[in-house]
Structures are given as structure tokens and as C-alpha cells.
Amino acid sequence: MLNTLQEINWKPSASDLRRFSRRSFRGTGLGLVVVAALSRFVWPDWARLQQLETLLAVSTLLGVLGIMHPVLARPLYWFVNGAAAGIAFVISNLALAGLYFLFLTPIAIIFRLRGRDYLALRRPERPGLWRDHKPPGNLRRYYRQF
User: Fold this and answer.
1) How far apart are CA 35 and CA 59, in angstroms?
2) Any idea what DSSP says for residue 134?
3) CA distances from 85 to 5, 75, 81, 82, 106 (A)
4) Which of 81, 88, 91 is nearest to 5 (CA)?
5) Does the pLDDT at position 129 exceed 80?
6) Is the per-residue pLDDT at 5 higher than 70?
7) Who contacts 22 (Cβ-Cβ below 8 Å, separation ≥6)?
8) Contact 17, 66 (CB under 8 A)
9) What pLDDT does residue 79 have?
10) Residue from 21, 53, 23, 22 nearest 35 by CA
């Protein structure tokens, strides 16, 4: 499994497929309408409006078919969830690697160059690794911690 945060249902029921079809129908349609409005009013010279209308028609057709016959939406469901899991896996690992190598590693290098040893990893000057324990002063302080 690629996505460790959310389990992908690879055997969806008919109601899951209908829900997926409704959501993808709404989301794709809304996104294409927004892009079409932007292309009409913000970039009026943009000549890709016919392609957007074709994509809107295809998304409408797929959404209606998926709602009426959920089995037809299963391959698209598998493709979308598989692609999303793969993308999430790559992006999360890149983000963690970026955080480690671009943020934590320079801090560690600076600390090492300045001689800081917060974890006490250097060997002490004494013969053993034991540290002397200071006995507690007043035992009544155990009963008055706050």
C-alpha cells in the first residue's frame, strides 16, 4: 500500500461508486466552469474554449453514466485513487526529505561547527560513562511539588 494515512477501497460498493461519480461530476464540472469563465472574461483571446466545452461534456457524460450504472465508474475510480495515492506518496516523501536536508541538516552542521553537544555524545574526560548523582536536599519537597 502506498498511502499509509488512508486506506484505499479497491473493491468499492455501488453506493461508493455513485458517491464518487457525483463528487467527480460536481468537482470537474465546477472546475471547468471556473476555467471557462476565466478564459471568457480574464483572457478573452484564449482560443481553447471549445476544448473546455468538450471536457465539460465528457465529464457530464461520465458523471451521469457513473450515477446511473456505477459499475462503469469503477475503472475511473481505480485510476483516480491509484494516481492520487502515488502522487501523495511522492509529494510527502519529497516534503520530508526537503525538510530534513534543507532545514535540519544545516542546523546540525552549524551546531557541530560551533561545538555544541546537546545530546552529550562526546566522550567525557573521566574514565567511565557514569555521571555522579546528587542526593536530594530536603525530602519534604516531594510532597510540595507545586
Assistant:
1) 14
2) P
3) 10, 15, 6, 5, 31
4) 88
5) no
6) no
7) 63, 67
8) yes
9) 92
10) 53
More confident site: 134 or 43? 134
User: Residue 45 corresponds to which cell in the numbers above?
Assistant: 483571446
Contact 73, 32 (CB under 8 A): no
pTM of whole model > 0.70? no
Q: 128: which 3 cell numbers?
A: 567511565
Question: 66: exposed, middle or buried (C-beta count within 10 Å: 0-12, 13-18, 19+)?
Answer: buried
Burial of 75 (0-12, 13-18, 19+ CB in 10 A): exposed
State the Cα–Cα distance between residues 43 and 19, nearest whole angstrom: 34
The single-letter code of the amino acid at 129 is L
